[in-house]
Design goal:
By secondary structure, this protein is α/β, with parallel strands linked by helices. It has 15 helices and 13 strands. It binds (2S)-2-hydroxybutanedioic acid (LMR). This is Aspartate aminotransferase.
């Protein structure tokens, strides 16, 4: 009965790891999936996470009972404070409902399912480009997905005019997906001034913001700074949705810990919205897993652990920033050598301006390399990355920078 089933393609991001794992060459380097690695190229479990886990193990009163449908209460409260701010009026007025979900993807999906059932407008505008899973999540929930201009390949920066035009032309009430910070895959974020203009436009047209916050603390190293876009929209008293992930900022990738918050106009509405979120979640997976959310709740509630977390988070963000600098310097040096060589022989200009590597922020650099150049780097240099030219800076380390610079240089020159 299943003989008609055709082979599905590998996932454009997670499939890169599958290909990487099959490569026997020891020089191989995986810059595909956004997963943090140490300078030694190893996955990192934060010390603060180990400490929290130890506290959980030592606490004999802890049991493995089912969580409520909406998850761990302490986790939900602390997550809302983390993203909206401890002094958020919306939280004080009980206008926010927060439910624990399965990381960022699960939070987006639960939010999308809720909107498909209870929101009058079924079109969601997503930035062009965006994380490859976004259109699939929203389509499968029954929303209709449309792009809005975001990235300008010429400037390798924000197409702000295009963004304003496209959102300005969107039907009133449409949903708009916004990356809270560290846009994936481009690493290009609006400035605060631009965020304010986006907010004004969206509110004037009644567009509904749906934030994806997967990198809070990773963009700048500051949890507050990276939540400013979201907080601007909440401060104006209007509605919004926010999906949070603890995969990157606490390194809890495989624990699948995240939260969906819906900010409503009144406490009464928030309570009814929460009751309907339970109707979405129960037939999907009944209730979320307990372990990862308990780790987060312990860390967010204990001042010492929280402070330790911010230090470790900043160290990860700083290491990524330092990788940007090192790669930029290595490519600059190669460009200079290349230019010198060719100006002596024939008149050829430098093979590229790589300043976007240090201007872009967050986990990823959108290199501008095309599909053929990426394939060349994988084939000849065993460097794995997504075919759109995105590289995970978090997967790089100082020892591998020269190898990557060689590969990029050869790919551009080929
Ligand atoms: C990524 O973009 O690499 C991460 O968000 C991981 C994923 O699930 O795609």
């Amino acid at each position: 009965v299943f003989s008609h089933v055709v082979q599905a393609p590998e996932d454009p991001i997670l499939g890169v790891t599958v290909a990487y794992n099959k490569d026997p060459n020891p020089i191989k380097l995986n810059l595909g999936v956004g997963a943090y690695r140490t300078e030694e190229g190893k996955p990192l479990v934060l010390n603060v996470v180990r400490r929290a886990e130890q506290m959980l193990v030592n606490d004999q009163s802890r049991v493995k009972e089912y969580l409520p449908i909406i998850g761990l209460s302490d986790f939900n409260k602390s997550s809302a404070k983390l993203i909206f701010g401890a002094d958020s009026t919306a939280i004080q007025e009980n206008r926010v409902t927060t439910v624990q979900c399965l990381s960022g993807t699960g939070s987006l999906r639960v939010g999308a399912e809720f909107l498909a059932r209870h929101y009058h407008e079924h079109t969601i505008y997503i930035p062009q480009p965006t994380w490859g899973n976004h259109p699939k999540i929203f389509n499968l929930a029954g929303l209709s997905v449309k792009p809005y201009r975001y990235y300008n390949p010429q400037t390798r920066g924000l197409d702000f005019q295009g963004l304003l035009e496209d959102l300005g032309a969107a039907p009133s009430g449409a949903i708009v997906l916004l990356h809270a910070c560290a846009h994936n895959p481009t690493g290009v974020d609006p400035t605060l001034d631009q965020w304010e203009q986006i907010r004004q436009l969206m509110r004037s047209k009644g567009l509904l913001p749906f934030f994806d916050s997967a990198y809070q603390g990773f963009a700048s190293g500051s949890l507050d700074a990276d939540a400013q876009s979201v907080r601007m929209f909440v401060a104006d008293g209007g509605e919004c949705l926010a999906a949070q992930s603890y995969a990157k900022n606490m390194g809890l990738y495989g624990e699948r810990v995240g939260a969906l918050s819906i900010v409503c106009k009144t406490a009464d509405v928030a309570s009814r919205v929460e009751s309907q979120l339970k109707m979405v979640i129960r037939p999907m997976y009944s209730n979320p897993p307990i372990h990862g959310a308990s780790i987060v709740a312990v860390i967010l509630k204990d001042r010492d652990l929280y402070n330790e977390w911010t230090v470790e988070l900043k160290a990860m963000a700083d290491r990524i920033i330092s990788m940007r600098k090192q790669l930029f310097d290595a490519l600059q040096a190669k460009g200079m050598a290349y230019k010198l060589l060719f100006t002596l022989v024939i008149h050829v200009c430098t093979p590229g301006d790589w300043s976007h590597i240090i201007k872009q922020i967050g986990m990823f650099t959108f290199t501008g390399l095309n599909t053929e150049q990426v394939a060349f780097m994988t084939r000849e240099y065993h460097i794995y990355m997504t075919s759109d030219g995105r590289i995970s800076m978090a997967g790089l380390n100082s020892r591998k920078v020269p190898h990557l610079a060689d590969a990029i240089h050869a790919a551009v020159a080929s």
